[in-house]
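Objective 1.3, modelling of assemblies. Example input:
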Amino acid sequence: MKSILQRGWRPLSVLLLLLILWEMAGRIFDIPVWLLPVPSQVWQEAIHGWMHYSGHILSTIRLTLTGYAIGISVGLVVAIFLFRLPMLQEAFYPLLILSQNIPIIVLAPLLVIWFGFGMLPKVIVIVLVCFFPVTIATLDGFRQTDKDLLHYMKMTGASNKQVFWKLQWPHALPAIFSGLKIAGTYSVMGAVISEWLGSGKGIGVYMTLASSSFKTDRVFVAIFLIMILSLTFFAIIALIEKWVLKWQRQGGNSLNG
Amino acid sequence: MKSILQRGWRPLSVLLLLLILWEMAGRIFDIPVWLLPVPSQVWQEAIHGWMHYSGHILSTIRLTLTGYAIGISVGLVVAIFLFRLPMLQEAFYPLLILSQNIPIIVLAPLLVIWFGFGMLPKVIVIVLVCFFPVTIATLDGFRQTDKDLLHYMKMTGASNKQVFWKLQWPHALPAIFSGLKIAGTYSVMGAVISEWLGSGKGIGVYMTLASSSFKTDRVFVAIFLIMILSLTFFAIIALIEKWVLKWQRQGGNSLNG
Amino acid sequence: TTEKSKETEQDGKLEKVQFVLDWTPNTNHTGLYIAKEQGFFEEEGLDVDIMLPGEAGADQLVAAGKAQFGISAQESITEARVQDIPIVSISTILQHNTSGFASLKKDGIESPKDYEGKTYGGWGAPVEEAIISSLMEPENADVKKVEFINMGNSDFFTALERDIDFAWIYYAWTGVEAELRGIDLNMQYLNDYTKKLDYYTPVFITNEKMISENPETVRAFVKAISRGYEFAIDKPDEAAAIFSKAVPDLDEELVKASQQWISPKYKEDADQWGEQKLEVWKDYADWMNENSLLEGEFIPEDAFTNEFLPK
Amino acid sequence: MGKLHLQHISKSYGATKVLQDVSFHVNEGEFVTIVGPSGSGKSTLFHLIGGLIAPDSGTITLDGKNLINTRGHISYMPQNPSLFPWRTILKNVLLSSEIAGKKDAGNALELIEKAGLSGYEDAYPHQLSGGMKQRVAFIRSLNSPQSIICLDEPFSALDEFTRFEMQEWLLSIWKEYQKSILFITHNIEEALFLSDRILVLSDKPASIKKEIIIPFSRPRTEDLLLSDEFMKLKREIHNDLRS
Amino acid sequence: MGKLHLQHISKSYGATKVLQDVSFHVNEGEFVTIVGPSGSGKSTLFHLIGGLIAPDSGTITLDGKNLINTRGHISYMPQNPSLFPWRTILKNVLLSSEIAGKKDAGNALELIEKAGLSGYEDAYPHQLSGGMKQRVAFIRSLNSPQSIICLDEPFSALDEFTRFEMQEWLLSIWKEYQKSILFITHNIEEALFLSDRILVLSDKPASIKKEIIIPFSRPRTEDLLLSDEFMKLKREIHNDLRS
Ligand SMILES: Nc1ncnc2c1ncn2[C@@H]1O[C@H](COP(=O)(O)OP(=O)(O)OP(=O)(O)O)[C@@H](O)[C@H]1O
Ligand SMILES: Nc1ncnc2c1ncn2[C@@H]1O[C@H](COP(=O)(O)OP(=O)(O)OP(=O)(O)O)[C@@H](O)[C@H]1O
Ligand SMILES: [Mg+2]
Ligand SMILES: [Mg+2]
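Predicted structure (tokens):
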């Protein structure tokens, strides 16, 4: 607890500073609420409008987590497959890149036709957003395996599976976490976008409605919700990373000290 | 030339296969053009509509390249700053994540209001999309610097600048390229999205217009254009990577052979 | 045109004007494009730049002065003005609301009472339920028996393929496209059922500052678009051709058919193109208030003006 | 069990010929040492036996079975310790047996203790000194079930006493389990003290320049190091290497 | 130029005390060797002198100037070659002078040739044998302008002849440039042959157990290795280390 406070005060103070600047700028230039509300107005709305949006948050969280879980699983599985079957890799790597260039607005009608208006098409959108950074980072991680260690594994007769799980996988973990963090950052946004595909609930819906009735302060409440969710999510992934890669941290201590 | 053919036939044949499957599925299930045109129809439109979209392509390419160049520069500079000034890193890292969670639809009016309808707000959108994967991957690359080499550099009295340019930077290059590739993939899509911010030209404009007048075949021409651009772009980055990291490839030869 | 360009060179500078559409170009905008292509703006000393709004939407851009003029609709303006967004309607494009609820003919939805047990695809705004309720109530049908699904950005035809039975469309565009595709639709226009919902959509807007500081520019602008729409009323086919040429990426056939359908509706029963009536603004606001959809005071007199229409 | 045969092995890296027609064998339970100039191709020989790389020509067999391009038949200690940075010392030692398909922590702990590393079971490799890492790599290769052990300069980073302890320990293991050992060293005394036979490699391209059968009976004690015959043999190998 | 003083140095890693009250000095142009058991703290001493880590207590000075936490005053060869995989051999050798602020390719090429590595200028480290890598690390440390050179087991991976050549070469450089050299080795003969003075380190926690001043005059030749006095001293150090 104490250490979170100790490490957290810096970013928090920067954030506070930004908010104060924003508040001051808003008041000095007298920017109208509908254009850009100041933080205190957003805060007001966040307090008073709690019942308006509380239901939406849970829905978005559920969607994000489902999409992220499936997305990173797909990302990892694809990376592992492509890495262990180099022929597949040559053939399918370009398809991965293509998958990132199908505009959602085009995909949306197809997804709706095929899967209706339920959860599935939304999860697919999040998966599409999440899996790519994981796959690319993981593949690059696998490729950079230390040669001396690979040498040793091969000489002692480790099977491909053993080489993979005992060497390439742990060695790629830092890179994988890099991908997981990027994907995590995108996943909340992905969920919000996917809610535009038609959804009864969710921060995305709350935001579009607020936006279409010119309630800019509510739009900003939505943005802050999205940001808080993303940061929390990122922090959780970073904590897991720290825990999984603790050997690295211990290494760092003795050298940077 | 020959080697491109040799290495290219696999992905090309997979692509061809997919197109053929799609064509067949389209014909067998008699899917209407407005829902999902078959490749041959898209091809027809691509041939006959050349004068409709040729002007748009150049505009999008210019936008993409400008945005990407600025985006990765920003990404690298931010990563370098945050890495070399750990205090800054603690304070600003969360802001980076936040920057990825401002929905474009909210940002869009603000950007237009602040910067008008010119090139600038569009470039800002692409930069926002591109810089993040570069920064995260680069930072993670820097952090994983080999400890023995860091040891050596410090013992011989290398300045921080030397440690950075002679060790951390080259060591992080594979990770950096990983980020550059992810960013490159996103940049074309980013340009297309940014064109929706109010623009007279570009594939994004062409696509929205086609979509709003229900010309699905043109929409798919646009998608294919986006894909071809992205792939070309990715291939160029990958080629540069290969060239820059040729020591790695040489290493690979003797071990995987 | 040679004459005109000479003229331009002579007096040198045209006033630059930024214009934002409500969404992508469609035949609602014909008069605007004709005014531009036929040089009507130039004759008024204006150089108009037409922008797509993208995700942004025109209202705030116009309100913030980033664009001088734009296209919006009475519903938006009503809600916007309640939030103190200083936009004003300066002329309506269509005299009557051409939107309504469309469904496939084979589904047999002949009147609002048939909505019971059907699925409506919308975007989840409270106003939708209120409107459907207003249509159903007089027929003693219960809006609670309609299933509402949020279909987000999906287009009408896609939505009908799946899960959705009826949706809210503008006939001039989507309805005409259905005709072209040979899809038979049943249509319930809002204004066939309650007069209060016969609001103006779409309309041209500007901001209050323009009106108080640059009334001459506004006047010149409205004059030019008036001429544009008059042209479209008189010569629909020629207008469609000019429009298609200006926006070549649209489907020519659709533009032509839509133009034929919409041209007579620009002016219809009014004395003059663009004229707006106070009661229409009042009625809709009243209806909103009845359904407690407005949070704030709306002054209909301030929301529009006929002052700039050519005399 | 453990009869290794190399016949007419040649190997080039690109344009540089490294090994030229190398033939030798290791009998069952024999202790054979390879000495030769730096860069002559000793480690390359191990890589060939281990199946990491294939020779350009020649055959390699273990108990009659082909070894070329097949792996897992030798237990191996590389010249560079190659410890896994994310594994503790104990887990690093266990790696070789994990690969061979069985874990035996008890034995590993015993080995760690004998190597003088008790207390470091849960340390990570970067916390160890150079010689300690080498000892970990050494016991990792011992904790593996194969019948032939290939050790590439296992004691080069050790002081004389630790080295001597390790040597004696290696001999006791060798005697107990009757394994065949192929050993690379630059230390001629070490080669003489440990081996049944010494193979002297020439400089590039390397071939077997001389084979010396060590006449000393076992068990050998430290006194041997000072005996005249030992000195004589040492000088002989010296000269062989030099010429 | 080049007078190094360590006084009352202690250093612990976590709970393990590694160095305990270590004091010694290296005079200008002197060649001092440190011997001691594996894991006793020899490399740690170098890290302290190089300013990589700070001692828990004690002072380190070079020509009177504090060395604690200051870097760049020594030229250094680490125990593990630490070559940069993306640099060719030539570029690796040039690294140390690059860091010191000047590039001198001519000198580097000469050093590469003397180390018997001509033809490998453009090779990458992974294409070299263990001993060749060590030689690259060695000449990299020579190609640097500092007045004191710290070498951590520079020749442990070399065969006796390459080693002897390198030793003689090191001595010639030492004589020519009048540098101070601090040298770590496990090879007592090497220590005796090269040094003016030998410091014997005890096991953990390490302290200076004994200091031996070598009486042999220079230049020293190979014959020295067989002389009685040499043998006697060797045995003496042997016993010092053992007890
Ligand atoms: N980063 C570290 N963290 C914790 N302990 C360390 C670290 N580095 C070294 N040690 C410990 O310090 C002691 C001395 O290590 P050092 O490398 O100085 O030994 P050395 O005398 O060079 O041995 P060798 O001859 O084997 O290279 C060892 O017991 C080692 O475990
Ligand atoms: N991957 C490689 N690519 C190119 N050449 C290589 C490669 N590996 C080794 N060589 C070359 O093969 C030769 C023999 O190397 P090897 O490692 O077998 O020597 P060694 O006898 O073990 O030497 P040392 O005693 O120094 O370890 C060297 O000249 C080296 O440059
Ligand atoms: Mg070797
Ligand atoms: Mg050491």
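The mean pLDDT of chain C is 87.
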